[in-house]
Amino acid sequence: MRRTDLVLLLVVYVIPVGVAAVLLAMVGLGVLAIALVVIEAVVATTVYVARQRPERPAEPSRRPWLVPAAMIGALGLMVVVAVVASQAG
Q: Rounded to 5, what percent of the chain is helix, strand, coil?
């Protein structure tokens, strides 16, 4: 990964998620802040794994559904955590 890509990733993705998590924790939504960080880590890991170039690029992927399914699952998990958090307090 080039240095400019790393700086862009940090400025556009990591810092805003971190700031949002800290702000959520400051207003008493610590569970939601933890859920946000965990879900974003899962999504980032999934995208990183899916981004890896295969050794044989001419072969089509056998799992084109993996990233969309993970994104939908992460969104669903965030909704469940938000509902549970709103019911709790």
A: 80, 0, 20
Whether the full predicted model's pTM is greater than 0.85, yes or no, is: no
The SS3 call for residue 59 is coil
The string of DSSP codes covering 35-71 is HHHHHHHHHHHHHHHHHSPPS-TTSPPS-TTHHHHHH
Beta carbons of 67 and 52 less than 8 angstroms apart: no
Higher pLDDT, 8 or 82: 82
Dist CA 6 CA 12 (whole Å): 10
Helix axes 30-51, 15-26, angle to 10 degrees: 160
Amino acid in position 30: G
